[in-house]
Each structure stands twice: as C-alpha cells, then as structure tokens.
Amino acid sequence: MGGLRLHALVSAGGDVGGDVGGDRVAPAMVLLPGLVTAGRSMLPLARAMIRRGWRTWALDPPGFGYSDKPPRALAMAEQADILAGWLRATELAPARLLGNSFGSQVAAAMAAAHPDAVRRLALLSPTIGPEVRRRLSWMRFLPAPAARRTRVIGRYRVRALDRMHDWLGDAPPLRVLNVAEYASASLPRAVGTVRCAVVEELEAVLPRVAAPMLVIRGDRDRLSSVDWAQHLVALLPDGRLARLPGLGHSAFYRSPEVVAEAAAPFLARE
Asked: What's the confidence (pLDDT) of residue 268?
C-alpha cells in the first residue's frame, strides 16, 4: 500500500456451525498492535478469538515488524490511509477492527477518514491519555515528519528480527518481545511515532467516527484513567465502555481470554 509491503499474521480460524469453507464462513477481524510491538504481540489475543470461531489478521503497521520501513515515521493520517487501502485490497473492508494502545489511535483515525472501510471498532487500552500527554508535551517541539515517503529502508532489520523471533520461541515475555521489536524498528522511528500520537489527539477524531465503537479499559491501566475512557465514549455517536477488573495496559497479552470475552460479542453484531 502506498508503495509499501505490509505483513500480517493470518489465521484460518474456526467454523460457525460448519466448516470454514462451507456456507457459513467464520467472521473476520483485524488486530492492530500497540507502538512498535507489531502483529506478533497480538498472537495470544488472536488465538483467543480463534477459539471463539473468528478468523484473524494481526497486522504489522508500516515501519514495524516485517512490514516495509519508510525512511521516517508516518503521521497518523498517513497510517490511516495505508490501513484503509490494505483493508480494501484484501477485501476485508468494511472490517471489524480491534486496536490496542497506539493501534487504537490508528484505527480511530482510519474510521473517521474512511468510514466505508470499517464496520465495527473496539479500542483496547486507548492512548494517549491527558496525563501522559502532558508529561510528553515536550515532544510537540520535535520536527514533524517530512512531507514525502519514497525510499524503503531497513530490510536487514527484518532479517535480524526473524532470527530473534526464532530464538525467542512462540511465547516470549512481553518485555523481551518489545526489546526485539524496538531494535527492529529503530529508536528514531519509535520516537517519531510517539510524537505523532501526542500531537494527533484521539479525542479530535472520535466525534467523526460513525461506526459502533467499544472502549475497553483495564481498571489498573496506568496510561489512561477511567474518567478519560468515559469521556471518549461520550464523544462517540455510538459508543460504550467495557471495564476489565484487575487488569492493566498489557491485558491483551497477559489476559487475552478476558479481552476476547469482552470484545467478541460486540464485534460480532451486525
């Protein structure tokens, strides 16, 4: 998309009253990861959704994981355009999306700019909350991304990431996985992407999202308050809030069954 090759972990999933290839095909959903960690971090949640009869696509956003790496961090609007193009190219649009952490900002920006590409949307542990944004306000003064994206770089990093994943195995600790993904993405890209997340506030796009949306927040999430989560829901034309008792920002990795139980019934509705 946009001259960039995107990578996704795809599962056939389960069936819905019969074989997946039969008359009733299992519903499909797209999982958007948080900052830098890419699609591999969403595997526990993908497996939990598969056990509930879903087909899943865990996407590596442009610049992260095994997807192509443009020479700079991409603005939120650019990521949203690329995501919408990918959804259309894969014939997943209108899609059911679950965005985790930073992925929730990309998902919401895409739903606002490309309403035809999304059917339902779940924001898990959405970022960036006002308190964290104030602490990161200095990032607003960093240079904005340049106006063009052309040259693809860092394919040697993809090969190195593949070797690290082989070494880490199927279910590494999340912090260890984060280290490998950060090394692949590069610190400048991570910092540039965080800057975009700080500058392009989630609250600004939510009133323009027409698709039904569920905000999911762990009660121990230190990156956003329950008051802010309720405020996000209030901004939505069609929004609701699900709270996960005892869980924090890493609920998607540490308690995927709980997250799936909250998200699946909402996303399955027509």
From this structure: 95
* CATH classification number, 7-268, choose in 3.40.50.300, 3.40.50.1820, 3.60.10.10, 3.30.70.20: 3.40.50.1820
- Tell me which DSSP letter residue 39 carries: G
Between CA 10 and CA 56 the distance in angstroms is 6
SS3 158: helix
Tokens of 212: 């039904």
* Residue whose tokens read 């948080």: 34
Could you tell me the two tokens for 191? 């910092």
Can you read off the two tokens belonging to residue 100? Answer: 């985790």
CB 8 within 8 A of CB 57: yes
Tens digits of per-residue pLDDT, 18-73? 333 334 567 899 999 988 778 888 999 999 999 999 999 999 998 888 888 888 88
